[in-house]
């Protein structure tokens, strides 16, 4: 048998590669693509605004934020928590009122049954020997025997038989970090001091420069490919190579000569994108309808 041509459509089997090719051309199927350099956040950019930080601050986990952006985020989250807490307290107060009404109704029904039984005991002789009508039937009306109070209304959505009141869960009072999901407090944020590169021959704007910052100790250029760390005591940014070869020898700050510990070194998270976690997933995924074979 001769070899089939590349674009031969006479095959009896719809192969995987043909299906994949048709899916790309028709707009069906899920697309996976590794993000390019333009989609990767720079190490000195805010995790919220994705822009270079004017007043950088870092969390305990190494995520960098602009002070203005993180303050707005914390205030907005606190307002949301306050609003949800008011709704939760309103719901709880309503539940307590309903329980009190149920207790009062139960007490009233017990009292009515007691009074009814007492009336049967002291009933008049005429009523005591009076027989019930055998032809009497219970009423089928929805308005008798107190059923008018629980009658559903099909014109009001909250009173339809199938409607269920949604319960509001008690909100968490802690503001969570948008990146790590851990509790975030303003007092735990550390001000970061980047050491700018001073090049008198470079007349470009600071935001346009490719090499904006350098290590505070070794003066190595910092970028996404260079692992960095922030010293908690002063906020200086140094390379991890400087930490391993210089700082960890005697655990003394190279610039201020003060004692450091392991907790004073915060690795700076880098290379994250706007829709994926830092350095964990650099692949974009777009889900579309599936092409049926």
Concise description?
With 293 residues, the chain is α+β, with helices and mostly antiparallel strands. The protein has helices at 16-26, 67-121, 125-128, 240-250; strands at residues 31-34, 56-58, 64-66, 190-191, 195-196, 213-214, 228-231, 237-239, 265-267, 283-286.
Overall description:
The protein has helices at 16-26, 67-121, 125-128, 240-250, and strands at residues 31-34, 56-58, 64-66, 190-191, 195-196, 213-214, 228-231, 237-239, 265-267, 283-286. The chain has 293 residues and is an alpha+beta fold. The strands form 4 sheets. Strands 3-2-4 form a 3-stranded antiparallel β-sheet. Strand 7 and strand 8 (237-239) form a beta hairpin.
Keywords:
293 residues; alpha+beta; 3-stranded antiparallel β-sheet; 10% strand
Based on CA atoms alone, the radius of gyration comes out at 36 Å
Question: What distance separates the N and C termini?
Answer: 27 Å
Counting DSSP E segments of at least 2 residues, the number of strands comes to: 10
- How would you sum up the major sheet? 3 strands, antiparallel
Order of helices and strands: HEEEHHEEEEEHEE
| Average pLDDT over all residues | 80
